[in-house]
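// run 5 | inverse folding | seed 20
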């Protein structure tokens, strides 16, 4: 399964366990802070990517994609079709790029591909939760057409909640 951008340069495909080493090598303090919640290990990354593959195979609520630029893993974008602060029909979008790929519009393009997939799976609204201090992630949400709808608190942390109507 592969979802490509109009120019063929950017594609999304399900994360695989053999992507773990490239992902782990691409992590930097920014990804660790905003996306992972703390430093991981290569073994933990492999286990998580196996879990992602199982979610795809079982039709679970997680769809984890590798963002690939000309075939090279450049980051990840995840869709969750259920969870805290999600109403029925909403899909949460989380994304991150490795440092060398930032600043070129790839995150915005990957988010747009991911929400197109989510709409095809029946989602009526996409949601992005961003810590208010994460200006880069907020900018991606706005460039992708998401609108700020307020804030939510989860585990004592405040998040700006952006949404995009997919209907």
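// decoded
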């Amino acid at each position: 399964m592969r979802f490509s951008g109009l120019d063929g340069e950017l594609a999304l495909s399900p994360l695989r366990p053999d992507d773990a080493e490239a992902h782990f090598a691409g992590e930097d303090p920014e990804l660790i802070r905003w996306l992972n919640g703390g430093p991981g290990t290569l073994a933990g990354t492999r286990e998580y990517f196996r879990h992602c593959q199982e979610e795809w195979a079982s039709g679970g609520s997680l769809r984890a994609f590798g963002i690939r630029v000309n075939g090279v893993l450049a980051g990840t974008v995840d869709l969750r079709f259920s969870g805290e602060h999600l109403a029925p029909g909403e899909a949460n979008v989380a994304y991150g790029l490795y440092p060398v790929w930032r600043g070129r519009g790839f995150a915005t393009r990957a988010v747009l591909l991911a929400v197109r997939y989510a709409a095809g799976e029946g989602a009526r609204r996409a949601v992005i939760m961003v810590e208010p201090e994460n200006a880069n992630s907020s900018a991606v949400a706005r460039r992708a057409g998401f609108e700020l709808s307020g804030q939510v608190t989860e585990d004592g942390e405040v998040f700006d909640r952006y949404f995009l109507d997919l209907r």
